[in-house]
Amino acid sequence: MPPTISVQQLSKTYQVPEREGGFGAAVRGFFKRKYKDVKAVQQVDFKIERGEVVGFLGPNGAGKTTTLKMLSGLLHPTGGGANVLGFTPWELNPEYLRSMTLVMGQRNRLSWDIPAADSFLLNQAIYRIPDDEYKKTYKELDELLELEPLMKKPVRNLSLGERMKCEIAVGLLHRPKVLFLDEPTIGLDISGQARIREFLREYNKRTGATILLTSHYMADVTALCERIIIIHHGQLKYDGGINELSHKIAPFKLIGVILAESNSHDLSKYGTLVQNEEDWEKQYIQVKAEDVTRITSKLLADLPIHDITIADPPIEDVIEQAFNS
Amino acid sequence: MHTLKLLSAFFKVNVQMALAYRADTVVNILLNLMWLGWELLSLSIIFNNTETLGGWGIGELIALLGVFRLVNTMMIALIWPNTEKFNQSIRDGSMDYTILQPVNSMFLVTFSRITVWRIWDLILATVLIVVGVNMSGGTTTALHILTFILLAITGTLIIYSLWIVLIALTFWFTKFDNNVTILQALMDAGRYPATVYPVWLRVIVTFIIPIAVATTIPLQALRGELASGQILMFVAISVASFWVASKIWKAGLRQYSGASS
Questions:
Q1: Pairing of strands A178-182, A100-104
Q2: Domain of A61, in residue numbers
Q3: pTM for the whole thing?
C-alpha cells in the first residue's frame, strides 16, 4: 500500500515586501516596492504511513505551518510535490477535502454568537453527512470529549479549553482519514492539554487516522508521537524515533533559581547560564540530565535559595541547540 | 438539491445569529418597522406627486422602484454582510477554512451571511413590481413579463459578477475595504430610469457601469421596447460576465494561496 502522505522535494518561497522604518521610507516604498525572497520550506522529503502519529517540530518560523498548509491544500508550493491519500492537495478536489481536516489552534471555525451545536449542524450540511452517520460520529466524539454540556452555550461563553474541544470535534465530524493539527493545545492549561492529548491518542487508536501535528509543548509530542520530524530554517533536520532524538541531543535540564538575597553570586560555575526573557526574576542554569541531583543539592547547600525549579528545556531551545552546534 | 439544503442551513444559522442577543433583536425589529414606515411614506409622496419621468408612466416608475428595491435588498441582505465577513476573513485568516470546505468557495462567500431582517424589503419590492405592472395598463403580455423576469435575473447576475470581481481584487490587495462602497456608488446610479440621463451618461450607466441592466433594462422589456436581439445580447453579456468573474475569482484564490503564509 502506498504511504498516506508522501512529500518529495517540497519547497515554498515567499516574496515579502520589505522596507526600512520611517516616514520617508514608507513614501518611497509606496512607489517602489522592494521584495525579499523568504525560503520558508526547502526541498523537504518524507513519507508517513497510514495510522502513524507524527510530531512536526521546529522553532517559530521554521516552516511547519507552511508545510501543513501545503499538505492541506491551502498553499501552492513553489517546487516539488506532495501526495496525500492519492490526491495532490492544492488541486482542492472535494473528495480530498472531505477526507482530511486541518485544525489550527489559533483560528476559529465555530460561529461566535451561537451555540456550537448550530455550527455542527451547518458543517453536517457542508460535508453532506447523512443523519445516522452524523449521530454516530457525534456520539463517539461526545464520549471522548464530553461535548454535551458545551453544546448549548454560545461559543463566546466557553472557556478556551472548552472551545478547543469543540473546534477539534467540528473538524472531525466528517470522519477524516488524515488530520493536520497546528498547535491544537496552544494556550490551554495543563489538564486541558492532557485531555486533548488523551483524546487524540484514543481517536487514532479507534479510527486508524493518520495524524501530523505541530506543537510547542514537548509533552504533547512525547505523549503522542513515536516519530518526529524536525525542520529548521525550512530544511528537514531530523526524521525518526523520538527516543533516538534524545540520544542524539545531549539530554539537558534547566535549573531555575531565585536567590533570597542579592543576585551577586556567580552561578556560572554550576552550569551554563541561560537567558530567559519571560522570567527575568529567575536565573537559569543548563546542566546535563545526569548531573541534576548533584548540582541541585550543591546549590541548596552553597547558596541562600528562595525558590528552585527543575524543568525540561523548551523544545525550541533543544532543537536550536542540536542543529546550530 | 444539495445546494438548497445548504442554503437552508445557512439561512437557519443566520436566523439563529439574528436572535442571539435579545436587546439587539428587539432594536432590529423596531428599526426595520421604522424603515418600512418611512419607505411607505416616501412611496406615497412619489405616488401622489409624480405623473411621468423621462417618458415613463407612474405604473412603470413604481415597477422600476420595485426592481431597484429587489436589487438593493440583495445588496443589503447579502452583499454588504458577506463583503464585511470576506474582508475580515482575509485578514484574520479564517478564509483558510472557507477554502478547505468541500463546497464551491464562491458559493460560501456569497451566502454564509444573510441579513434576515430585510425579508420585508423583499416582500415590499415584489408588491411594488406587481402593483406597478398592473397599473402600467393592459399592454403587457405574458411574453413581456417572462422577458422581464429573465432580464431581471441576468441583470442581477451582472451586478453579482461585478461584486465577485471587486472582492476578488482583495486577494491581490490584501486590504481593499472600499470594494463594496464602489459597487454601492455604482448601484445608486440605477435608481432612476436610465432614460432620464443624457445620452452619453446613459451609455456609461448602461454599459460601462452595468447597473441599469438590472433595473431599467428589465423594465424596458416589460414595456415591450426591446428587440429579441437585444434581449439575447443581455443574456449573453450576463453569462459572459459571470464566466469572467468566476475565472477572476479562481485566479484570486491561486493568488491567495501563493501569497499568504
A1: parallel
A2: 5-109+171-247
A3: 0.78
